[in-house]
Amino acid sequence: MPQKIVVKIGTSSLTQPETGLLALSTIATLAETLSHLRCLGHGVILVSSGAVGVGCARLGLTERPKAIALKQAVAAVGQGRLMRVYDDLFSILQQPIAQVLLTRSDLVQRSRYLNVYNTFQELLELGVIPVVNENDTVAVEELKFGDNDTLSALVASLVEADWLFLLTDVDRLYSADPRSVPNAQPIALVSNIKELAELQVQTGTQGSQWGTGGMVTKISAARIATAAGIRTVITDGKNPRNIVKILHGESIGTYFEPRPEPTSARKRWIAYGLVPAGKLSLDEGAVVAISQAGRSLLATGITAVEGEFDPQDAVQLCDKSGSEIARGLVNYSSADLQKIRGRHSREISAILGYEGAETVIHRDNLVLT
Questions:
Q1: Which domains does the chain have, with CATH numbers?
Q2: Percent of the chain clearing pLDDT 90 (strictly above)
Q3: Which side of the chain, N or C, has fewer Cβ within a 10 Å radius?
């Protein structure tokens, strides 16, 4: 049965760690594997890192640049080279590919979000493998995905994929970094991501010399994907053929079970597509009403308002310890919420001088995270 498959490969798998030059044998194997999956009738999307790393090698830089302008310039050099290599390899296999460069703003605006969805659908219908990367050359810091793990999860959620494969420089998730902790325990199955906290899994944020990721970003990506009902696997990027073996039922890498009842596409857009403009702190009663009873958020349950935002902006909802429990679209600006927080809904019109909504965030515009 044809499936939609999103594969993300990191810079650490695409390049040689000593030099930063492209690992051509790995890329060739990846091209062969993805082309084979396309021949079997599957829809395939590749999310590829590597533009900055390739650009550094091309320009003779010995380390990844930190300044935004320089990094964007290096990405512009590297992206063309990276796509040339992909196009050469896929062309030998007679598999058409397409370059798709995205910024976070492409997903923030609902109309653009839907347009991106339609573009992917058409490419897959044409039998094309889209090669996706963040548009590092123009992305501004506050609207960056931050890493391609997050980007791949958002793309998988957008196209309603069946599988997300995160190819990295370790063969699976461990209780600690096996490169520095020899007795780290491998984790083959994650039924619920909350289990990882109970297992005291240590997730370093440091990526490779040339990359930006780390295991923590992969777990975050798995959280986004599994919430959308997508089977997610972390496995060794140097062995892309593992993808086919996993699809055939072999237990390789770490498998994250999808949520049995995935959230709707619109709520996934609210939770992960939008960038929160502020934060609302809630009392215990409001937390229970939202997380357990499925209620809307009322002004009376808000204890503090942070940030500046307008009506219909996305905000984070946090408990008294500061942990995020949900996100939603607000019906009031931050200035008005400062005036009505902690007050009963019937008092709102008298305080603000106009007849506002009874709810601060309606449950239809609220999603647990």
A1: 4-267 (3.40.1160.10), 276-368 (2.30.130.10)
A2: 58
A3: N
